[in-house]
Amino acid sequence: MTMLEVLVGNLLLYLFMARCYGNSSKMSLVYILSIYYVIISLLGIIVFETGIYENVFAVKNNKSFSIIPYAFCFYCLAALIYPLRTVSFNNISFKEIPYNKTTSLLINLWIVDMVCYMMLKLSQAVMASSIGYGEMYNISAVEGDAIGTFYGDNWLLLKFNNFNVNLYHSFSPFVMCYALYGLISRKIRRSKAFMLIGLILFTQILSALALGSRGNLFFVFWGIAFYFIIFYPHFDRRLKHKSEFVILCLIGIIMVYSIVISFARLEDTSTETPFYSVIRYFGEAFPNLGNLFWGEVARHPYGTRLFPYLFGLTYVEESVQDGYAFWQMFTGVPVLNFKTIYGDLYIEFGEFLPLVIVTFISLLFSLFLGKRKISFWKMALVYWYFDLILQGVFGFNKGGQSNLVIFMAVLIISFIVKIYTSNRSRI
User: Fold this and answer.
1) Where does the sequence pass through the membrane (predicted)?
2) CA–CA separation, 204 and 210 (whole Å)
3) 221-263 pLDDT, tens per residue?
């Protein structure tokens, strides 16, 4: 099959999934994620057919491409998305949220800490702007020396940042639900709810700008969209208009800064325009799967690349780029490029083991959600799982030591919230 035929077949698979989930509800996580992958699939066709893809990646025109990796990838994503069909406002026990003096005190302490953290990110975003987003991206994503640039020898400031990175990922989902359900049920003032949402939103935007990352900016939108999908149907008319305005402003901010970052990162190259670069960024993953990765892997790391804490260290990189270079030499494929969640696991474990791993994750998450109403304390893990699927277009984003630490933080905070909410009547 030609690459175009494969990509069209791939698009039809996700259109089928979207059609199935859209029959029940258009405002659901499963439907929105399906549409998301329909758009990514369509962009894959566009970048390939317009030559945007081939401006950067060589394509063997005489090669016959296989639909198999795309079918496997579709299975992985469909299996992961399926458990989320039960995640909806009416099936989550938001009434478990304790709106009392103790909770208010905890939230106020979080506000003080988050304001300090946001100011840190603001200073780093200003520094990135003065250095230049292109250079900042090289420092953070290529050289891997963002820590040295931002913190130098200030050990205390670095620890404060690391603590808040973990706290942000583990506690923010609960704060967002506290704020949004408080708005709907009128259990907290609107001004306080908007302040909590704004703190989370602007901290994430500033963090993305500090690293010169278009991808992180993109996930700012989806971080808000997750909650918007769940809560929007229960907003009053005034709140719906305000939330729609915020979403539109957020999209505008992300687009403007994505273009600015793209200009900065492409100022020394003549192969792409900033607009084409952004389109390829979101469209290259599916063409890459069949063109760069399927059938091209020389050796599989079998866990040592994605999960070194489980399977042992094969190599300790001196920089981010050095690590990519090592694993490219080891596997024979450019592991730096976007590869989809199946493609990443295929590089790691071969053709069939990823299907087993994904099936296990999906079944485990289904058991975790259970058949009854979803308890409030599970929301951080639900968001963690949603993020796994969302970023699955690029690869398996939960590997590595730092992601393990974040996952452990999510588990610990979730367990604390479980104990606290179960005993709220005694407080």
Assistant:
1) 6-22, 29-47, 67-84, 105-127, 167-184, 193-211, 217-233, 245-266, 352-369, 376-396, 402-421
2) 10
3) 888 889 999 998 888 888 888 888 888 888 888 778 777 777 7
